[in-house]
Design brief:
Length: 132
């Protein structure tokens, strides 16, 4: 990656939003609405059938779970195993690439424990400020 002092990089960031924030594609993969609960569940409980995963997550619709699992499989975060039985059985598990996100999630959990009360206080202050 070129540094901000490089005029070529600065010029590119002015025209290309992806270059302005080089982590945006990672953020899209990891922090989409349902990625975290899916990966967390697969990491915690291991290999899961669709119905088990759906039950453990709770509020996700089957359509959205199917879409997210397909995207996570495409991104290499989840492995889908098809068992040609009668009836057919499909299982999902977190991949090594998905598992490599564990330190990131651990840091986020630590940050949340240390700071969510500050966020709540800031929201309260903002919402009760008559000038807002």
């Amino acid at each position: 990656m070129r540094m901000a002092g490089n005029t070529d990089w600065v010029a590119a960031t002015a025209t290309d939003p992806e270059l302005a924030c080089p982590t945006s594609s990672v953020v899209d993969i990891v922090f989409s609405r349902w990625t975290t609960p899916i990966l967390w569940t697969l990491n915690t409980y291991g290999r899961q059938r669709f119905v088990e995963l759906e039950r453990r997550i709770g509020t996700i619709t089957p359509k959205v779970l199917t879409q997210r699992l397909r995207q996570l499989e495409r991104d290499g975060m989840v492995v889908r195993t098809y068992h040609p039985e009668v009836p057919p059985r499909v299982e999902y598990e977190i991949s090594e690439l998905g598992r490599s996100l564990a330190p990131l999630f651990a840091h986020l959990a630590e940050w949340a424990a240390a700071n969510l009360n500050k966020v709540e206080q800031a929201r309260h202050d903002y919402d009760t400020d008559p000038l807002q």
